[in-house]
Design goal:
Elements lengths: L37 E4 L16 E5 L3 E6 L6 E5 L2 H11 L13 E2 L2 H12 L2 H9 L5 H48 L2 E5 L3 E4 L8 H15 L5 H35 L6 H9 L2 E2 L2 H18 L6 H4 L4 H29 L6 H24 L2 H25 L4 H27 L8 H29 L1
Keywords: Membrane, Transmembrane, Transmembrane helix
Length: 473
C-alpha cells in the first residue's frame, strides 16, 4: 500500500498500519473520491462489494489482467472483464496513468463521464481501433496496444452484440411504456361521451368513475416499470386494458339502450323531430382512442421488457434522480384515488356529535335518494324538447293575437302542452328547492339545466297570459 496518499479533505497521510478500507481516510473517515464515477486500482484478492465506497453509483477497478465494473444499480454489482496486457497498456495510455506494479498502488482519479467511454469503446466496439491509430501516430509503444485491441475485438464482438440487444430492448420498453402511460393519464381526463343537457363526460368523473381505479393500478404499474421482470408489468397492463374495454362496451350498450328507449317514447309525438336531433347528438368522444392506445403501448412495453434497468437511466450520471422522479409520480397516482375515497367523504361531514351526524346523514341520504329517483324518472331529453316547443308556440300565439286580435292553432297546441308539462315542472321546482346547495344528489351542471327548462316554461306561460289579457279587453 502506498503511504503517500493524502486525504484532500483533512490532509491526513495514509500509513501502512492503518486498518481502514482502501477507499476510506483513517482521519476523517470520508471516501477519497466522492464522484459518481472513478477509476480504482486494488489487489484482485480484495475486490468485492465491501471494499468499495458505498456512496458511489459506479466505479471501475483495474488490475494486472482484469477490469472490474462496480454498479450499485445492478443485481450483480461486480462484473469482471478479462483483458490482455496490450489492451491494458492501451487503457493506461489513454487515461494517462502509470502502469500497475507489485501490490497495485492506490489510484483515486475523478474521471468525467465522457472519459470513461474510452474504456467502453475500447472493449466493446471497433471504434477504438481508429481512435488508437490517431493516438499512436507519435507514440510507438501504442502500436502494439492497437494490435492487441484488434485481436480482442473478435472475441468480444459476440458478447457485445448480446449486450446491445438487451440495451436496445431496454430502451424500447422504456420509451414505449412511458409514452403509453402519458396517453393513458391524458385519456382518463379526456371526454369519452357527449350528451345533451349533460355535456362531455370523462372516465374520472370527479373521482366517481372507473378512472380512479385506472390511476390506482397505474401507480403499481409505474413502480413495476422501473423494476426487474416483465410478468408483473404484463399482468397490470392486462388489468388496465381489460377495465378500459369493459367501460367501452358498457358505455356503448348504455347509449344504444337510451337511444332506443327515447325513440319508442317519442313515437307519435308531434315534436319528435326536435328530440331526435338531440338524441343524435349523443356520441362517443376521442378520449377512448387515447385510453386504448395508451393501454396497448403499456402492454407492449411489458412484452419487450428485459430484466435490467433501462440503459438510458442506468448509464446516466444522475440515475437516482430519474428513479426518484418516477417513484414520486407513482406516489401521486396512488394518493390521488385515496384522496377522493377518504377525504372526499370527510369534507362532506359536518362538525356535530357522532349520534347527531349519523341521524342527520341517514335522513339526508333517505331524502336525497327519493329526490334523485324522482328527478331521474323524468326524461330530460323529451321534457326539454316539449318545453322548447311550448315556448315557441306560446310566442307565436302572442304575436298572432297582437296582430290579428284572435287565437290560432298555435294557441290551442300551446295550451294542450302546458296542461301536460305543468305537473312535471311543478314537481321539479319543489324538489329543486328541497335539494339546496349542500345536496350532491345531482351535479351542479344538471341542476342548472333543470332551472333553464323551468325558466323557458315560465316564459311560455307569460306569453299565453299576455295573449289572454289582450283578448279579454
Amino acid at each position: 500500500m502506498d503511504d503517500n496518499i493524502i486525504c484532500p479533505l483533512c490532509g491526513y497521510q495514509r500509513k501502512d498500519q492503518d486498518n481502514n478500507p482502501e477507499w476510506q481516510c483513517p482521519g476523517c473517515l470520508a471516501a477519497y473520491n466522492k464522484a459518481q464515477y472513478g477509476l480504482f486500482s486494488l489487489p484482485e484478492k480484495k475486490i468485492d462489494e465491501f471494499s468499495l465506497p458505498q456512496d458511489m453509483s459506479k466505479a471501475y477497478l483495474l488490475t494486472e489482467d482484469s477490469l472490474y465494473i462496480f454498479n450499485n444499480n445492478l443485481q450483480k454489482k461486480i462484473k469482471k472483464i478479462e483483458i490482455s496486457e496490450n489492451n491494458l497498456q492501451f487503457i493506461i495510455a489513454e487515461l494517462g496513468i502509470d502502469p500497475i506494479k507489485d501490490e497495485e498502488k492506490m489510484l483515486f482519479e475523478t474521471l468525467p463521464y465522457e472519459k470513461l467511454n474510452v474504456i467502453k469503446k475500447n472493449l466493446n466496439s471497433n471504434t477504438s481501433t481508429s481512435h488508437a491509430n490517431n493516438e499512436t501516430t507519435n507514440s510507438p509503444p501504442n502500436i502494439k496496444a492497437k494490435e492487441g485491441v484488434e485481436e480482442e475485438n473478435s472475441l468480444i464482438e459476440k458478447q457485445d452484440d448480446d449486450k446491445k440487444h438487451v440495451n436496445s430492448n431496454s430502451d424500447l420498453y422504456f420509451w414505449v411504456g412511458f409514452l403509453g402511460l402519458i396517453l393513458l393519464l391524458i385519456g382518463v381526463f379526456s371526454p369519452i361521451v357527449s350528451a345533451p343537457m349533460i355535456g362531455d363526460l370523462n372516465l374520472f368523473r370527479n373521482g366517481k368513475g372507473d378512472g380512479i381505479f385506472i390511476l390506482f393500478l397505474s401507480s403499481f404499474w409505474l413502480v413495476t416499470f422501473m423494476r426487474a421482470g416483465r410478468i408483473g408489468l404484463t399482468i397490470l397492463s392486462v388489468l388496465i386494458g381489460g377495465l378500459i374495454l369493459y367501460d367501452l362496451v358498457f358505455t356503448y350498450n348504455l347509449m344504444q339502450n337510451i337511444k332506443s328507449d327515447l325513440t319508442n317514447q317519442l313515437a307519435g309525438n308531434p315534436f319528435a323531430g326536435i328530440a331526435n336531433t338531440m338524441i343524435g347528438s349523443i356520441e362517443m368522444k376521442w378520449g377512448w382512442v387515447l385510453l386504448l392506445l395508451g393501454a396497448s403501448l403499456m402492454l407492449l412495453s411489458g412484452i419487450v421488457k428485459d430484466k435490467d434497468v433501462p440503459s438510458i437511466i442506468e448509464d446516466h450520471p444522475q440515475s437516482n434522480i430519474f428513479i426518484n422522479f418516477f417513484n414520486g409520480i407513482a406516489i401521486i397516482l396512488f394518493v390521488l384515488p385515496l384522496y377522493f375515497w377518504i377525504f372526499g367523504v370527510v369534507n362532506n361531514t359536518s362538525k356535530t356529535s357522532p349520534s347527531q351526524l349519523q341521524t342527520k346523514q341517514q335522513d339526508r341520504s333517505k331524502n336525497q335518494s327519493e329526490i334523485v329517483s324522482q328527478i331521474k324518472s323524468v326524461n330530460l331529453t323529451v321534457l326539454s324538447s316539449n318545453v322548447e316547443a311550448f315556448d315557441h308556440l306560446a310566442s307565436d300565439c302572442l304575436i298572432n293575437v297582437k296582430v290579428y286580435g284572435k287565437i290560432n292553432s298555435s294557441c290551442t297546441k300551446a295550451s294542450s302542452i302546458e296542461d301536460k308539462l305543468l305537473p312535471q315542472l311543478k314537481m321539479l321546482g319543489q324538489e329543486l328547492k328541497k335539494m339546496g346547495k349542500e345536496n350532491k344528489g345531482i351535479s351542479s351542471d344538471l341542476e342548472m339545466k333543470l332551472n333553464t327548462i323551468i325558466r323557458h316554461f315560465k316564459s311560455g306561460q307569460k306569453d299565453l297570459m299576455t295573449a289572454n289579457t289582450i283578448l279579454s279587453r
